[in-house]
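Lab notebook page, bench 4
Experiment: in silico fold of construct C2
Operator: M.H.
Input chain length: 353 residues
Purpose: comparison with the prior construct
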Amino acid sequence: MRFGPVWPLQTPTPTPTEAATEVATEVATDIGGFLPFEIPMWIANIGKSLIVIGLAIVVSRVLVRLLGRRVAQQFRRPSLTRTALRGIRAGVYIFALLTILGIYGLQLGDIALSVTVFSAVVGVVLAPILGGLISGVFLLADQPYEIGDMIELADTGQRGFVEDITLRHTKMFTLDNTFLVIPNGEIRQRDVINYSAEDSRTRLSLDVLVTYESDIAAARTLIEAAAREVDNVISGGPDIRVGAARYPASPTVYINEFADHGVLLTLRYWVTEPYKLLAARSRVQTNVWRRLEDANVEIAYPHSHLYFDDTSGEMNVSLNDGLSGLNNGGRSHAATGDSPVPPRQDPDDLADE
């Protein structure tokens, strides 16, 4: 007898979730076969779930180690690299969660909520979370700062280094050794000063008011020399480019204004380390004070001079109330401006009385 061609029976290919569920079921069945007693179903399901969780942890760590360097070379930004690695971990854990739901016989259609309940949950709970995640995506795309940069919050004056950037928040260590966590939705609405963007050199300024009698040329030379003596200050070199403009790298003093009390001189200088701005400013001011103290330069301060002459008016003074008070029972009365003397009466006439 001659038979025709035999075609293999095609069975549907199981999905990854079903395959993982079958593997976990076989493992649990094999383990249960070695025991002299039967294992309850809920205990077997818990054991399967623990196995899936353990495999997810191991697989996520292995993937991060294998792909970490390649991802870092691809993005070249620490914030994007960490976000991509977190996405890999999250994908593995989501797959493990779906596998555990399949172990308990739950499918995505079984746990779906109705349209009304889902809309309420999204509007009340998930809307702020989704808003923060979207802000994190824009923050990573705009690149206003990067991990390791020194930034300052303009409204509060807090300075620190960016420790981590996630889709939900930005972590910053302040210069006071405190830990600050700012939601991305909030930090995108605030003014952030980045001291480490592309070039860490930062320019500072110092206003010095000297009197008009001082030697202005000598004052400018002494102030510039005082700034050059500080180690953190750039003493010279090629001009520093900021955008399309170029500025002198060495300390320079300008005549800013002819003020009421003196000549306002403005010193501009560059520092190499942005996290030592206060220390550099203090050293520069100390050197300026030391150099100007022994020179023919006087630091001006607000003061007033009062002049009296024949056209300044008259002031009437009377001691009659005070003298009469000494003769009346030992009671003294202080002389005040409210004396009974007419304001326009001649003082010589009062003496005759």
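Observations: The CA atoms of residues 152 and 159 lie 4 Å apart. The chain is about 45% helix and 15% strand.
Next step: discuss at group meeting.
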